[in-house]
UniProtKB/TrEMBL annotation:
This is Zinc-binding alcohol dehydrogenase family protein. GO terms for molecular function: oxidoreductase activity. It comes from Amycolatopsis jiangsuensis. The keyword NADP applies. The keyword NADP applies.
């Protein structure tokens, strides 16, 4: 089969992903074999491309957000059949979805309703799953006492879906951060009650809007450099949910307020063990919300074709840090 792959980690200006012929995936007993129709592109994948190399003689196939059609089912699979339209996150420890076919555990997959396109379905799993788990922690509701939430990075995939989940499933006041006119307008359109500029004095902007404290901060970018003002705006015994804590961070400013810190990666159940079926259940909820209109489409750019040129263009956008919503490649 055809796949987009590379051997050595590399920067964007030395882009080395090629379209190659590679062996068909070997499904496990609990796997689905999925013919991929669309993939969502995430900044995290561009970051991994810069640091992760293949084993000697091997290759790396990234891509962990996909939509497609089931082509085969393993003997331990329940609830899926050949021909089903599905979406999922894949598995960080296995080959990804930048390929014609993907083998994936059926428990981290959900069916796509007929009313949902492949491109919109492919935009949901990573951002939606990350936002859900960061906010709701394996439930469908916020922790008790959370009435005001700040979403840092409100125009990205995680931030956009977090805002919509909060507005559709809770009564919380939602403030988002965005620094450009187009991203501020996007956050408002996605349901944010207030938008503030994270390049300025965030606590001051919140106070000017009548908000002296928030109960929960969901930080999707730049958390390590913003702990000081995050601590300032959080109430005592508040909550910080962060999706980008991948290096040394001084959490000292949070201690005086006894803040609860929640880290999040949507791959936790696969990497560290857990209820895999819960992940498929979250995806099914997201799909139902999208069909019912509770979640608006976040797909803003659609590129066509499993090619080097489309993937390079997608990575250029991801690394610009100026994207809004989600970039999707359809096959």
């Amino acid at each position: 089969m055809k796949a987009l792959a590379y051997e050595k980690a590399h920067p964007l200006d030395a882009f080395a992903i090629d379209l190659v012929d590679t062996a068909e995936p070997r499904p496990r007993d609990a796997d689905l074999l999925v013919g991929v129709r669309a993939v969502g592109i995430n900044p995290g994948e561009a970051a991994i491309r810069q640091i992760r190399s293949a084993e000697p003689g091997g290759r790396v196939i990234l891509g962990w957000e996909f939509a497609g059609v089931v082509e085969a089912v393993g003997p331990e699979v329940a609830g899926f059949a050949v021909g089903d339209r599905v979406m999922g996150t894949g598995d960080w420890a296995r080959d990804g979805a930048w390929a014609e076919r993907l083998a994936v555990d059926h428990r981290v997959v959900a069916r796509i309703p007929d009313q949902l396109s492949f491109s919109d379905a492919a935009s949901l799993p990573i951002g939606g799953g990350t936002a859900w788990e960061a906010l709701f922690r394996d439930q469908d509701r916020l922790p008790v006492g959370i009435e005001r939430v700040l979403v840092i990075g409100g125009a990205g995939g995680v931030g956009t879906l977090a805002t919509q989940l909060l507005k559709s499933r809770t009564s919380a006041l939602v403030a988002s951060t965005a620094s450009r006119p187009e991203t501020r307008e996007w956050c408002t359109r996605m349901g944010a009650d207030l938008v503030v500029d994270h390049t300025g004095d965030v606590p001051g902007q919140l106070r000017a809007a009548g908000i002296d404290r928030v109960d929960l901060v969901l930080s999707t970018a730049g958390t390590g450099g913003q702990v000081g003002w995050i601590a300032e705006i959080l109430r005592p015994f508040g909550h910080l949910a962060a999706v980008d804590l991948n290096g040394p961070v001084d959490l000292g400013p949070l201690v005086a307020k006894s803040v609860s810190l929640h880290t999040e990666t949507v791959f936790s159940r696969l990497l560290a063990g857990g209820n895999l079926a819960a992940q498929g259940g979250i995806l099914a909820e997201l799909a139902a919300d999208a069909v019912a209109g509770r979640l608006r489409s976040i797909t803003t750019t659609i590129l066509d074709g499993l090619t080097v040129d489309t993937m390079r263009a997608a990575h250029e956008m991801a690394e610009s840090r100026r994207t809004i919503g989600k970039t999707v490649i359809t096959f």
